[in-house]
Amino acid sequence: GPMLSTRLKSKQKDFEERYDQIFNINNKIVSKELSVGRAALSSLLGGIGYFYGQSKIALPKGFSQKNGDKYIPYWPAALYTAVPSRSFFPRGFLWDEGFHQLVIWRWDAHISMDIIGHWLDLINADGWIPREQILGAEALSKVPEEFVLQYPSNGNPPTLFLALRDLASGIHAHQFSDEEAEKISTFLKRAYVRLNSWFQWFNSTQSGKYEGTFFWHGRDNMTTRELNPKTLTSGLDDYPRASHPNDEERHVDLRCWMLLATNCMRSIAGFLKMDSSLEKDYYKLSDQLSDFETLNKMHLDDKTGAYFDFGNHTEKVRLRWYEDREAMKRELLRETLEAPQLQLVPHVGYVSLFPFMMGAIPPESWVLEKQLDLISNSSILWTDYGLRSLSRTSSMYMKRNTEHDAPYWRGAIWINMNYMILSGLHHYSHEDGPYKVRAGELYDELRSNLIRNIVGNYQETGFFWENYDQKNKGKGKGARSFTGWTSLVVLIMAESYPSLHR
Length: 502
Fold this sequence. Notes:
By secondary structure, the chain is of the alpha+beta class. It is about 40% helix and about 10% strand. The chain contains 15 helices and 15 strands. The chain has a 3-stranded mixed beta sheet, with no helix packed on it. Strands 1-4 form a two-stranded antiparallel sheet. Strands 5-6 form a two-stranded antiparallel ribbon. Strand 8 (about 300) and strand 9 form a beta hairpin. Helix 3 runs parallel beside helix 6 (about 160-170), helix 4 packs parallel to helix 7 (about 180-205) and helix 13 packs antiparallel against helix 14. The longest helix has 28 residues, at about 180-205. It is globular. This is Glycosyl hydrolase family 63 C-terminal domain-containing protein. InterPro entries: 6-hairpin_glycosidase_sf (IPR008928), 6hp_glycosidase-like_sf (IPR012341), Glyco_hydro_63_C (IPR031335), Glycoside_hydrolase_63 (IPR004888).
């Protein structure tokens, strides 16, 4: 009784003191926000689990085993990882994990390296990592059957490079003690071969028709039920892309993820003093993907200043009911009213801001002013609770994708992307140029809105939420007890962002 209570109070005091020391949030927030930040961090850490089992890997279409199974098992594997929500999503998600590690490495770099190392140990001979890790009974119990099989042609954003870039940059900037820096350097050296394999898998399997272009493979070009074929591999699920997928597509978000990965590999190779032809290729590709004129030629809409995907697209699509009188049923199917053509895909949303998030726009460019216009326009992305995922002007805004699929990334406020946009605003508010002051003003207002809304929802409901409702006063929605990337509120409070300099 009393002894345990005393020990718990002592541990709680230690936790609070360490939290204050690491995140240094004195004078940045008020006391009620401080307690919510501590709750977010402790819930993220408390959700970390150790999972063991075998993923199921889909066989190519038309193939099956003698027993009828359409999959083969991956090798038995262990995974130490954080999760988006221990109660609702008790499994590892590759693209979520990079955002989790942005918080965790700041708390304990050793835990973070252990987790990243476990993920890299799941890489196969081709350099592929399954994007969802459904290992063991707990994980499997929460997965709909159609999402169990993993497809070795499909990727997921390589967000682990966000945390790895921070670790590498921290060594360059002497942010760690000599002992910590030595351990991180040793880890990066050991991880380098796997990271290279992972990068080369992306570079070879997700490349586009033309040099320097990329698109998310795995979209269904035969579907008749989806208003816009989903891109689950991008992490943005039903965010609108080209209406008719083919190999002419160019996805601006994937191009930016590749730029991040290239710059990270270049940075690691630099301080490890590697100088083979492979490292020279990273320098070459980094310069190629950083080329602002090429980026604009491929993806920029000059009129709006938004970056768009490119592909075979028409806006003239809709879902309508078709009746099958013989079968006595009706189906909601897609109808195309106009032939698609190769063009920019005109949907303003998170994807339109990816070059901004990555700091790829020169601070003096007119494009930066246009991007700030998009961010600040309440008819487009701005709300008093955070930035919505898709513009209110989009033809897909809050549209269902199928009879059973409610809009997901078509308007809701997501914290991981808002954090990335805040990082961009913070970056440009410190870069000399004509838009420095405006970027700083938008940064302060967006940061304040996000903190107020997340804290308010937590105090009202006791939960952190998967996303927040842009139409209903920022109310939390989706999975609750979602302490995965919503815990980035800790870094928003601390004003702790990744460096966007190469």
